[in-house]
Batch of 3 targets.
Target 1
Amino acid sequence: MTTTRRHALLLGAALSVSLFATACGTSGDTGSGTAAATRSASADDLQAALNAGGSITVWAWEPTLKKVVADFQTKYPKVKVNLVNAGTGNDQYTALQNAVKAGSGLPDVAQIEYYALPQFALGKAVTDLTAFGADKLDGTFTPGPWNSVHSGSGIYGLPMDSGPMALFYNKDVFDKHKIEVPKTWEEYIAAAKKLHEADPKAYIANDVGDAGFTTSMIWQAGGKPYKVDGTKVGVDFGDAGTQKYTAAWQQLVSGKLVAPIASWSDAWYKGLGDGTIATLVIGAWMPANLETGVKAGAGKWRVAPMPQWESGGKATSENGGSSLAIPEGAANKQLAYAFLKFANVDEGVRTRVDGGAFPATTAQLNSPEFKDKKFPYFGDQQVNQVLAESASQVVSGWSYLPYQVYANSVFNDTVGKAYISGTTLQDGLKAWQDASVKYGQEQGFTMQ
Amino acid sequence: MAVFALVFLAPIAYSVYLSLFRTQLIGGTTFVGADNYVKALGDPQFWSAFGRVALFLVVQVPIMLFLALLVALAIDSGRLYGASFFRISVFLPYAVPAVVAALMWGFMYGTRFGLIGNLNDLLGVSLPDPLSSDLILASIGNIVTWEFVGYNMLILYSALRVVNPSLYEAAEMDGAGQLRIVWAIKLPALRGALLIATIFSIIGSFQLFNEPAILRDLAPNAITTYFTPNYYAYSLSFRGQQFNYSATVAIVMGVITMVIAYVVQLRGMRKGA
């Protein structure tokens, strides 16, 4: 959810391209790509496709792609790319599902968030990219995102960006009240209490119940509530990792130590700027959002490693991020994959990093130029050092549900109750689990 | 007739067709007969949504119609200074698109930076949060009332305008006071218009969607995905890909609405006769 809004905000109205572009794009194609899926495509094939030219349609809302598309067309003048913003997150998924169902109007490339990709992979709505040699890209991407685009033996997308989590904090507020930057969650809770006592208007964080945040926190704590093996699915929020999270976070919720402000709301931006929301535990894509959305916070914010469950620990998790995938039935798969590679592996990555995106490629993450970049907004801190370190410490073995999009949509119906009534987070998660299991059964999954 | 079939009957027929099937992520589409209907009739989420709009109906609609009646009578009395200005300002909210109205009220309801927040700061009080789960329905009722008082007022006012003025003169000659005139002439003349306004309002209440959909961003925990029957159908179809069940919920709700509207109409006409 978080990424959805993030992109929406970054984007504004900038990318609104009329749907006519889609129609024009697909009608102009010659059916050169359909046969490609059946055989393995080599680099030569891709080059040949690029030389032959053609046109592809890309559905994405990621703002930095605009520049990538322009560069791509300059490099390969025979290729025409129609970049269409078919909505952000859920809206686009709905449009994509409908196009898949109808079997027409499909884009050649679609942006799909990691949490939503399994759903499309399962429904055979996206192409297995191993046929194009995506399996040879091992080591190109950081483990978290790379793991996220795998489903069974297939690879269903190339990682575009990633969101290893870190602690963003307002240094002014911490200095003013002489609070140490928390290194563990225990210290974080203590800091929350101290801050709110010192200034009743200030809160350590905002939280009204956010599925993406909650699952990321459980992920870091070592919880693995979702067990997915093909169509066999298990949901269990009773594990030790989950309980570690609920026990700690319940203290903040019950103690009214988190501000009841929804993320991405006007009040949220205001709070981040005026010091009433002192920290954000969020994905590494946040800096660009702070810079553009919270001008009042310039110079005040810093980035620290994500607080740990054990003192001295080094565990983080991912929060958001998306991949580019090729819908099954896309008209020009060869060309589509060539674009994917350009945007997510080759030159395009650099372009997007310069535009403020947080890459998923190890080469960029380890390059000195990236790591040493100083951010004036963060008081010249070399923010990427912290974020890149977090990217290498993501706890492995996490998986989302093959219908996470639906599950997240009913999060506030269930866990949300813990924020407005006497229900505990643990009870709320149990209710969420029940709702997820019920949906799984209705959809024909074997629930364990 | 062809147009009628295409734009009116076809969508209904298609919904009914959809409601007889079930599409699963695993297993595809199967014909399930009336299964979806059985499920809807026993679905606690559907009935809680229905209960919510029913409560909304019995509380908000009388308040709104009473206010509309008062305003219409006041304007019609001819004793109001600046009546036409008053009429247009009461009607104006109806011209504001419902989405914009909901957004606007959403800003005002904010306890931090909204009007409520400002009042709290200014007066040093702590007003209850209109977006809390206890008050959210009342807050939505307030928005809807604001939007539709003017519209209903116009229906009632136009009915009053067609009353023959000689009746009033005759009444005055017989020594009837204003209240007496309202009671004996104006209200009976309004019966038909009131009935229409009531039926519109019943349908409107059951179709409640815009306001909760917009306010959900501000109060995600207070407004559930099954807050109203319409919103439930929307969530089912666009969040859960359960198009078949969503169509079923829509049809069940449509039938209930029709039945209630019809019963109200029958009763209203019998009284009138």
Target 2
Amino acid sequence: MALNFVSGRTGAFDWLFQRISGVVLALILGLHFIILHLISGGEYEYEVIMTRLANPSWKVFYFCFLFFALYHAMNGAKILIDDYIHHPRLRTLLLSLDWLLAIVLFLYGTLIILMHQAPAVKG
Amino acid sequence: MGKVTFTILRFDPEKDKKPHYQDYEVEIRRPGMMVLDGLNQIRWEQDGTLAYRRSCREGVCGSDALNINGVNRLGCITHLEDLKTPVVIQPLPSMPLIKDLIVDLNDFQDKFFLCKPFLIPKKPLPDLEQLQSPEDRRKLDGLYECILCASCSSSCPSYWADPEYLGPSALLNIWRFVVDSRDVGADERLQLLNDRHGVWRCHTILNCIEACPKGLNPTQAIGGLKKALVSAKF
């Protein structure tokens, strides 16, 4: 059974949450785009961006962005693996690598979001 | 009235190592000739070794589903006048080839029978017939007309990629019974397709809709099954 543990889920969860994460991503990405390119007027000054990223609310916003983008991408890759890889061992290996990569990227992204500090005020 | 070139995929397992194409000239003898008329002309007058399936020649039996100019259609209801020449005729894609245009449909039919394509009635059975309201009967329109020609399943990239995927035809036929008000087998049918080779392999590519010679919509039926499974689970 150990070999098949990754395909224990039927696919209903993957299908539903691929759609939900897609809708959430569209909203977050739209908001991100509006803030970065329309409201900020396309000025990517270090202080402006760092001040925004240091705000806890924006940290939560970008944490959601990271989570849903990674889930959507890695679940998409899982569905592709389910489509084309039929050898149980190879599929288990690839699905494990898929989720491992997702976790590593998620932790790395979380670390970057958490580490943002407001820049020191210039003297 | 002119001639049309047929480029047909030929394969004789006793002689050929791999399939090859062969050209034939088909004489247009009357308006409204179908692809099947052309195949008959070749077999009866030019080359008796050409093998293909046919039966009712009016789009009901589903025997002569072929890949014609890259699209799966029934030879008997496809007008020669509507096709670009040369008319390239191949067996249905992804199915094991037996000879010339004949493919092995056993796996396709096994998947159909797996979905219990019969009414599972309420018990005890009524003394006379089981009644159904006209509204409930209308829910079966666009589903019961399937002739099992395999055009849809063999046009589906998910079906090509996963040999165990049930395919649009079997799934449409499951949905046909799930929505039938007289049937009580919905739960056991839905169980059959809630796995890796069931409905979740459908990615709404929509080839099946284009391929269906009866104008049915297997993708919509699969959408109904997905919704039923998701609402049963969450």
Target 3
Amino acid sequence: MKHTVLSSIAIIAVLLLPFPSHAGMFEGFNFSGTFESVYWSHDPDDWTEDVDPLYDGPYTSLENNLSLLVDWKKWFAEIRLRSMIYDDPIHYDPRTREHETDLEIFKATAGYRHNRFTITAGDFYKSIAHGIAMYVQEDKELNIDRTLRGGMLEVPTAHLDITVFGGDIRWYKFRDEIREKIFDEFKIEDRIVGGRLLGKLPFGIDVGATYTRARIYEVIRDELESEDVTVSGGDLAIRGLLSGRLDFYTEYARLNWDEDEPFGNNVEDGEAIYASITAYTGGFTILTEYKDYDYWEYRYTRPPTADRDDEEADIYDIRGFRLKIDYFLPSTNTLIYISGGRFDNHAHESSYQIVTRNRIDHIYGGIEQTWDKLYVHLTYGNKEYKTLNETHRHGTGDFVYNITTRHSLNLFYEYKYTGNEDRDAGQIIAEKDEHKSYLTYSVSPWFALSIHYNKHVIAQRNRPDEKDNWVACEAVVTPISALSLSLMYGELPPGLICSGGQCRIVPAFEGIQAMLTYRF
Amino acid sequence: MVWMQSGFSGRTGLCLLLLLAMAAPALAAKPPLFELKTLDGAIYRLSDDLGEAVIIFDFWATWCKPCLREMPHINQIYERFKDRGLRAYAVSIDEAASKSKIAPTIKRYKFTLPVLVDENQSVIRKYNPSKNVPYLVIIGKDGEILREFNGYKPGDEKLVEEIVEKACSDSTGFKPVESTERNRDESGTTGISSP
């Protein structure tokens, strides 16, 4: 019956698409949406069941999403229908490990915007202040899309914004015994209720106070168990000090578990402090930040950071300073930036067992230059875990050459190195060099053709047959601005994808990916 | 493959594609209305701007490199045409984790575009549910969407400029604007007003 899923989506889309043309009576009616279909066929050349019976095996998947959005006067509504079809139920979604579904209402939202308030019911995202006390947002890069399903009331006034909200956050967790092929699926429904007051004072000063209460579920010994926790805090933002030359921001939050040892873990109540000062003078922007996160083990948090966006940022147990200096020279269109930070953990007995102080020294810098037809962006970073003698190096080069106004070439290269100098330090990582590159030729706005080449040099391999070289090609065609078609064929290596300091492991891929996106 | 065995052979997808393409010309191109805060906390309402001027919304984020490649061009277009009736806004979709970087980025690149903050990404989801950035939309003086640009490829700015120039040259409904900053201090005629 799987084909009925697609037929249903097609029928719904076709019925709804021309709706505005019959809706003249609804003045101010706006209707829009997107249909997206992604097909994956993973078929590794050298795969044998003896080496890895489950995770590297062939699979085929098809995911369809139809989003419909309606705006009429002060009302708004959104519905997203989804179907996910995998030919091997063991694999689920190779990217998100989400479960297979027939046609489902993945999201549904409706709301009303009054001049004095906005009320939302259904699925919505919510983050508070700079994301320490609460962060529930979609992250497209990481393929994370969880929402609060409940209600929210926002009342903005001249001097005070009031927000109250509550709802469940649904997601799935799997327990899999690989060799035994046992799969359990746990549906997690955490619940959060809370509120926020934001006072808007003269001279660009904002003062906020936040309180949330959450019931968090976890799978413990094959059973779902819950713990209650309170997250509360305050924040202060002062903008435009010294005639616009200085911005200040600070936030403090506490995490209070009702039980002494939540989920049986030896953790205390958590505390998070963040402060930043940003100064603007001449072509310089100078950012200084201080952070101190202790036992900050909470599922719905994403603290701010001036670390590199494309690297993982520690948030559970870390304290220290970072300085970042940017200098922009308008006469030559040159941006230079450099940043250095030193961080420690709190040396709790439970953290890192052997290593009592895990000092991290991290520097990175870059230069961006635009000439008439050429754009160049070079970066380099070095992170040293001093106590572990662990080194991470990371460099990128991005070159764009505009041949004509429509034709261009883009060459991107990334290098990552990880290694241990002292293997007796308590934590051993594989010594690895990773090279990633692609070359793209574009004819704006109609098509782009890319060739990807990746090379991994790994000293200690987990699998003897793991590839060294990965080659893929990709074409994107945009025949009309509303329609985009892409096709990728080849091999992509396993690795980390990072966005905003959070990372996700992606498995290797060999085969075909095809995507269709239509916006209306 | 299970789904292939169950009868799906690509025909449904092809039919859908054709039907979508056929349905496209019948669609209205009115932009969804919205309200957002500016970087300094004032409220911007599209309803106040719509039908008054040519409008550009350039959705971007501090972590988006193609956005930062595109925005200097859009800023130049804004500077060139703002006295001819163009109102352009850089709509940041930075979330809490990177919101603190918006102002430094604007100052670093010396952008003069007014900045709107779509922290919850509620507005970009209305315009471009895939939420890819950069995403640029041009709205004509008649209040209808003239063109959308999903992503940025070098040379797109030429097309943007051509469309803006043509749209601004159309005298229908033209209402000259001197500057966004100046009007903000008046009665919110640009759509930006104090909360």
